[in-house]
Amino acid sequence: MKPAFQPRLVNDPFGDPALYVEFLFQKRAILFDLGDIHALSPRKVLRLSHIFVSHAHMDHFYGFDYVLRICLGRAMVLHLYGPTGFIDRVRHRLGGYTWNLVHNYTEELVFLVHEWDGGRTLSRARFRCRRAFACEPLAPMPVEAGVLLREPGLMVRAAVLDHKIPCLAFVLEETEHVNIWKNRLAELGVPTGPWLQALKQAVLAGRPDDFPIVAEWRDREGMHRRRFTLGELRARILRIVPGLKIGYVVDCLYCDANLKRLQRLLDGVDWLYIEAGFAQDQAEAARQKYHLTAWQAGDIGRRVGAKRLVPFHFSARYQDDPEALVGEALARFEGK
Ligand SMILES: [Zn+2]
Description:
This protein is α/β, with parallel strands linked by helices. The chain has helices at 42-46, 58-61, 64-71, 86-94, 182-188, 195-204, 230-237, 256-266, 283-288, 294-303, 322-333, and strands spanning 5-9, 19-23, 29-32, 48-52, 76-83, 109-116, 121-128, 135-142, 147-151, 154-162, 166-174, 177-180, 212-219, 222-229, 238-241, 245-249, 271-275, 308-312.
């Protein structure tokens, strides 16, 4: 089954990191990191609903003003997520402009900003255009197992990595696809109908095997009703296909603590976008800057069992030979 979203790096591997994930069946997109994103058209920026920022080093957060400029005056709610201190960073960015006329705007841009320190709560604040983007603290929300966003069809989880400062790594997971074997349903002697939707929802909600499912339908003889258990239907008529998992890892030290967190976060990831800033002969320079080498990026991809590795966020010193970094990352990833 075709995945519901399509990821694409906004810039070449030397440009600021930003991964634009477009939803194929909705006019909507999610962005990971907010560096220089001028390559995105205004139309694409206006599709954004959620932006996840790994940390506030300039190459990851410089594009905030571009988003603000395009979305100002629109009726939009933008959800922003970032590490410890992020709400204050956004407050400062918004505080850099004069907002004495915005209370007249008919359409209101709202930022809902979330800040996660790796613990069990998500701090939140709201910045509304007509209130001159004053910071309005909101009640914190609980966080379970690093899940920052969960909605029907998708989930975004995060882990806090050591980049000398906290830096968030993310994984976007599409919910598994629940397909019905139509021929087996016919063998069961039960027609399709709205009850199949309830069945799919029960699967996606993780209901147990003894969960009751009632198939109801009407024909010339009247109303019919048959009772099943979820386990019975799962075995007889369901085909469950895992959804796509996309990992996004930038700016972190290659160390045991980070490797453990990444292992947990990225288990079973399909596509892994990962920084590979330096060649391995510059491992000491990478370590001092709390960055990964290309070999280390490949090694992480291999350890977590990624299906595909996309190395990026290259240091400008390799401008003449980006293939060297790609080659080193993929050689380790493929175990050569
Ligand atoms: Zn950084």
